[in-house]
Amino acid sequence: MTRYVFIGAGAIGSAVGGLLAARGTDVLMVARGDHGRAMAAGGLRLRTPEETVSVRPPTVTGPDGVVLRPDDVLVLTTKTHQAEAAIDQWADVEVHDGDTVRGRAADLLPIITALNGVASEEIALRYFARVYAACVMMPAAMIDPGEVILRGTPQRGVFHLGRYPTLPADDPDRREADARWLSGLAADWDAAGCHVTTPDAVMDWKYRKLLSNLGNVFDALLADPGEAGDLRRAAEAEARRILDAAGIGYISDETDNAARRPHFSVAKVPGTPDRIGGSSWQSLMRGTGTIETDYLNGEIALIARRTGDAAPLNARLTALARRAARNGLRPGAITIDRLTDELRDALPGTSLPGTSLPEPV
């Protein structure tokens, strides 16, 4: 029986793992801090628009004492800036088949990179032979330890999953075996309320999600992120220009909207705050001291520099988010006027066209 091992079980990892556990699927949560202690002591509460479900998945803080099995699937759900440390910790853990040690996790087990951004796949590929990229569309939040708020309904989220890199077309046997494995995973996750599709061009989905996540910084810094419409459109327009110039493909807005619309919409969960932000907002709310913006807006700046270009607006936003996290600022600590002043010399001379992006997740 497949067991899903969620490494860095925060909002997304706890949400998917908890939903699977509620269906009787074998899971193992790997979590630290207050959230890990709360799950180990009292289980996990999943709050949805329709109901609250409590589960008690086995929870550990790391690989010590964990016996990995040949049918385990590792699911990485840390923030991207935490990914390499987590991957390094698990890559050389032994995989046991009864009393026999079969080898190392990195050689034998698949790892799914269910993170924002587009950098974790290359990080994982330095260690693991079988890497699967996951584009995550799931409005989940962890505000209190031991509890996850899931606002998607009727399904809780949509996941695009695919092998990284794509297997070559002239290797039909491996492609067929891979398709069968992904089909089994999709059946498990679909039954738990997480709709899974398995496109070949999974990174096109992740780059489209990257464009969406450029707005996370405004969600985190401003009391009313709706005031940042022009700034957000300018950041997205700058990013599209950089991706297009670098020849990097991404899914169209229409395809992206069509993928999520039949499966879920965001709804209010009774008894929760009116405003619940995305992953960057949650980092500032919890006062972690770090934020993933280096791998969101900062990814655009990196791509620009690699091609001899520049992305001054996204670069400046990256620095502001890093400073806010380092200084312990809470969400909404910066006014729109102050933010505009901070960004003024990085803004284009004229208003740039943009599109309406979905709520950050």
From TrEMBL:
It comes from the Bacteria. InterPro entries: 6-PGluconate_DH-like_C_sf, 6PGD_dom2, KPA_reductase, KPR_N, NAD(P)-bd_dom_sf. Residues 5-156 form the Ketopantoate reductase N-terminal domain. Residues 223-323 form the Ketopantoate reductase C-terminal domain. Pfam families: ApbA, ApbA_C. Coiled coil: none annotated. This is 2-dehydropantoate 2-reductase.
